[in-house]
Amino acid sequence: TIPAMKVENLAPNHMYHKHPEWFVKYGKQWYYNPALQETRDFLCQIVADLVTRYDIQAIHMDDYFYPYAKIPEELEQDDYLKYRESEEQSFDDFRRSNVDKMVERVHNLIDAYNVKNPSKAVAFGMMMPYEEELCHQRNEYLNLDTLLPPNGIYT
Asked: Does pTM surpass 0.85?
């Protein structure tokens, strides 16, 4: 997420200047577009760099989903028509699928790294039962049935 600022003030090598098509603007902020394979690839490059270069214990992902305020569908209509999995896939399911793909790729990358260095990196997520309804109410497009097992803990 790029906070409320002028994009002209970003460093010249910021990804926005290299690939502005990877971003969607909503309100005063710019978001990496979760619908794009390129943004998921970029995120995985960052995670791979972290787990291979630094002695880290975990990756904490927060606010990796759509913003709380619902982005108007018309801002993503072209992506929806281009990248949806089928004509029957709803817009909400399209967004949930985008988040699922991103989280699954990061998890698989960390998991693959753990095979080589089991003590270095762990993917962990936790959701309290009451938070599931909050996520649906806030339209974050978290697919909790996919991301977390019934006990609410995913390691």
From this structure: no
